[in-house]
Design brief:
The protein has 303 residues and is mainly alpha-helical. The protein is built from eleven helices and seven strands. It has a domain of 182 residues. It binds zinc ion. The site of zinc ion has 6 residues, from α5 and α7.
Length: 303
């Protein structure tokens, strides 16, 4: 039975009590920052969800309407795949969740993107290092690590399930409101997950909030530094990204405002450099570092 129908059959009082209980029960500890975070999911469910995304992506690529003959793990550059797997393995070891079942896949398709699904399943498209349209240089480990560390941070900070939890609460609150006015047909049944992975040309592309992007930048630059990759590459890569445009499947669409992000990364660089020079140093308290600078537009509005 859809959740919406169950909810409509309950009294308003019961729904409100249930909602309060869920809000209280959902507060769990964030593995990365140590602060409390709002997440209904257990880490096992992150892993299961990520597997589903990856399997859907692999199946879509295998059907290969758009990229015939370039299906997943077929015709791939084995040396490059080994390089990426090596980088992800080094990053995973220094991450806050080193024991996730990390897995790396490469598809030889002209899409400028890479992502890590919840639970650490990583997908990379070879367009990422396309000499003309790409974001990084193919054989530059530091640049590859900058992108991969950022993506892994989305997984270790559990941005997808955290956001799904918040959205579900908002929708349940919406259902309470419509129940209260006697309306029918509220839609808890819609697939919230599709909000995160937009789909086009057989390719999945995640979209996160600006807050999540900033957090992944912050965590990512420290992961790469601790794993032995020069954190300056993160600033360089996102400066470059700020000057590029792409379709909805590209990393440029899913990672907007790169100019501001490069500036924020430059602020965190000195701290990251300390870890790069001495990887045995612990991570700083992420909450005490300077925040992402505000976008130009909102600065102009302030008095
Ligand atoms: Zn991101």
């Amino acid at each position: 039975m859809p959740v919406s129908r169950i909810l409509r059959s309950l009294s308003l009082k019961t729904i409100l009590a249930l909602l309060l209980l869920l809000v209280m029960a959902a507060c769990s500890k964030d593995y990365v920052t140590g602060r409390s975070s709002y997440n209904w999911y257990k880490i096992d469910q992150d892993i299961k969800l990520g597997k589903e995304v990856l399997n859907s992506q692999l199946a879509a690529l295998q059907k290969g309407q758009n990229y015939k003959g370039k299906a997943i793990e077929v015709d791939v550059d084995e040396a490059q795949l080994a390089r990426i797997r090596g980088i992800v393995s080094r990053l995973a070891k220094v991450s806050h969740l080193p024991d996730l079942p990390y897995e790396v896949h490469l598809a030889e398709i002209p899409v400028v993107n890479a992502w890590a699904a919840p639970g650490g399943k990583v997908m990379v498209y070879s367009g990422l290092w396309d000499p003309e349209k790409g974001l990084v240089k193919k054989e530059n480990d530091d640049e590859l690590a900058a992108v991969l560390a950022h993506e892994l941070a989305h997984a270790t900070a559990r941005h997808v399930t955290e956001s799904l939890s918040t959205n579900m609460t908002i929708m349940m609150a919406g259902t309470v409101a419509t129940s209260a006015i006697g309306a029918t047909g509220s839609s808890m049944g819609q697939n919230l997950f599709s909000n995160f992975f937009s789909y086009g040309f057989n390719v999945f592309a995640p979209s996160y909030s600006r807050k999540n992007e900033s957090e992944a930048d912050l965590i990512g630059i420290f992961y790469m530094a601790k794993a032995g990759y020069n954190p300056e590459a993160a600033v360089a890569v996102w400066q470059r990204a700020a000057k590029q445009r792409g379709d909805k499947t590209s990393i440029f669409a899913s990672h907007p405002a790169s100019g501001d992000r490069a500036k924020a990364l430059a602020q965190w660089l000195p701290e990251a450099q300390k870890i790069y020079q001495n990887p045995s140093l612990p991570y700083p308290n992420f909450r005490e570092l300077p925040k992402n600078p505000k976008p130009q537009a909102s600065q102009a509005k302030s008095p």
